[in-house]
Amino acid sequence: MLDALGDPTRRAILTALRRGPSSVAALTEHVPVSRPAISQHLKVLGQAGLVDHEARGTRHIYRVDRDGLSSLREWLDQFWGEALDAYAEHVRRTETTRGRRQP
Amino acid sequence: MLDALGDPTRRAILTALRRGPSSVAALTEHVPVSRPAISQHLKVLGQAGLVDHEARGTRHIYRVDRDGLSSLREWLDQFWGEALDAYAEHVRRTETTRGRRQP
DNA sequence: GCTATTGGTTAGTGGCAACTTACGGTTCGT
DNA sequence: ACGAACCGTAAGTTGCCACTAACCAATAGC
């Protein structure tokens, strides 16, 4: 999932999709790469659960998948929480043993 | 910043640092790459504002930078909010013109 | 002062992934 | 039915980045 966000082009695609659902052809006007490249990136983003797509005739409409963003936020919150706890624990241990070192 | 999180090894380093501050040598026991590789990744993570370091004699103690995680969360929240708004707007427009298509 | 430990830097290489070109398939319009 | 539009996939190339090996600097300990 974070691998998908690691590529600047994919972030540009997501940024373009942030303004609302869009077809592949419409995305080419906002992202400076060829259409096949965009298709490949959309495939990666889809496998990562960050975008969803729906066929509308020959048009394929892509949109941001809110569940993907949600789980990304959960991951970040969990990481954030554990890091904070570990840091507090570290501070507590350091404070306890502070007297042993010379001030 | 998200480029820094795109690499699995860097995420492994962050995961190891999540348990508390650590020296470079200690990190090599949790991340299966050579020490120079870890140094390079730590440099990237530092430039991204995700880790902070402090020299303690010859030991260099690295830890997770909470400000970096904070700004990452802000970015995600902003993206999340705009995506939600755009989606709501899209739904509103679609609802308004729904009667034109055949049911 | 000498050696060992710790860690950052450089040079060089290999592999992967992002990109383009070319092609095939499906649907809309006439 | 035929051409056009829209899109995905396959094949091939190129550039970048993650990694290792070798080297250098700084501090701790004797």
Protein model, in words:
2 copies of one chain form a homodimer. Helices cover 60% and strands 14% of the residues of chain A. The first copy, chain A, folds into 2 domains: 2-64, Arc Repressor Mutant, subunit A; 70-103. The first copy, chain A, has a 3-stranded antiparallel beta sheet with strand order 1-3-2. Residues 96-103 of chain A have low confidence and may be disordered. Chain A has helices at residues 2-5, 8-17, 24-27, 35-47, 66-96; strands spanning 22-23, 51-56, 59-64. With 103 residues, chain A is an alpha+beta fold. The A-B interface holds A 2-3, 5-8, 11, 14, 17-21, 63-64, 66, 69, 72-73, 76-77, 79-80, 82-84, 86-87, 89-90 and B 2-3, 5-8, 11, 14, 17-21, 63-64, 66, 69, 72-73, 76-77, 79-80, 82-84, 86-87, 89-90. Chain A binds a DNA duplex (30 and 30 nucleotides) through helix 4.
